[in-house]
TrEMBL record:
Residue ranges, annotated region (Disordered): 1-22
Sequence similarity: Belongs to the phosducin family.
CC annotations in GO: cytoplasm
InterPro entries associated with the record: Phosducin-like_chap/apop_reg, Phosducin_thioredoxin-like_dom, Thioredoxin-like_sf
GO biological process, one term: protein folding
Residues in Phosducin domain copies: 55-218
Pfam families, per database record: Phosducin
UniProt name for this protein: Phosducin-like protein
Length: 243
């Protein structure tokens, strides 16, 4: 795919004078982090089922308190989840569905290719579906690029536009800078955090990052000939040799 051209994208309709307060969702958890450090346990990102499996804890009161916090976070996310799927948008709808809607929260737009041979465009469309499902509190839209912007070059597809307060705050032309065809939900998470749509300590962001780190560690162990399941056994045998 040809390198993306540097250009300022002219959107169908825009309202640069929108004046609505933008709010973030990152909250302070200093006390919680201090307690986690004391107990040497990484709690952030664990779901309720995982917490239930941690039975050998010294501080049951802290575990219960943390589970209550998690329940509150889940309930808050459920109340904010007013979307849940990708919105197909037409050019006449663009101002209302995208520009004006961004006064109430972030709007992420995928300018997709009209050609079925554009692999990156297909990759982003699938990621958009997953992101919309997981982040129901964030609005994700999709429109064919040449229907939104006349003569928009297909070589620049997909293009990501992020709106906030009626204006474009970020644009990404093709997926070259975000992993290309290997782009994953980790990069989508980074984008959401970067523009302030979610906090860096959002439970969904933290959990995915933790799972990715665990998978990477597991892969490194397997390459080294030691599977994680056998690592502890090997350490026990080493201890026995010293007895």
């Amino acid at each position: 795919m040809a390198a993306p051209q540097e250009q300022r994208i002219a959107v169908p309709i825009d309202d640069p004078n929108a004046d609505t307060e933008w709010y973030g969702r990152a909250d302070s958890q200093d006390a919680l982090r201090a307690e986690e450090s004391r107990m040497k346990i990484d709690w952030r990102g664990k779901d309720l089922d995982e917490l239930d499996e941690l039975e050998d804890l010294e501080d049951d009161a802290f575990l219960e308190s943390y589970k209550q916090r998690r329940m509150q976070e889940l309930n808050a996310l459920t109340k904010k989840a007013v979307h849940g799927s990708v919105y197909p948008v037409s050019k006449p709808e663009y101002q209302r569905a995208v520009t004006e809607a961004s006064n109430n929260g972030p709007v992420f737009v995928n300018l997709t290719s009209s050609m079925g041979t554009n692999v990156e465009s297909r990759v982003l469309s699938e990621l958009w579906k997953q992101a919309a499902k997981e982040y129901g509190d964030v609005k994700f839209c999709e429109i064919q690029a040449d229907k939104a912007i006349e003569n928009y070059p297909d070589r620049n597809c997909p293009t990501i536009l992020v709106y906030k307060d009626g204006d474009i705050v970020k644009q990404i032309v093709t997926l070259m800078t975000v992993g290309g065809v290997r782009m994953s939900m980790l990069e989508v998470d980074d984008l959401l955090v970067d523009v302030g749509a979610v906090g860096e300590k959002d439970m969904r962001v933290v959990k995915r990052k933790r799972e990715a780190e665990d998978a990477k560690e597991e892969k490194l162990m397997e390459r080294g000939g030691i599977k994680s399941g056998n690592l502890r056994h090997a350490m026990v045998e080493d201890d026995d040799d010293w007895e």
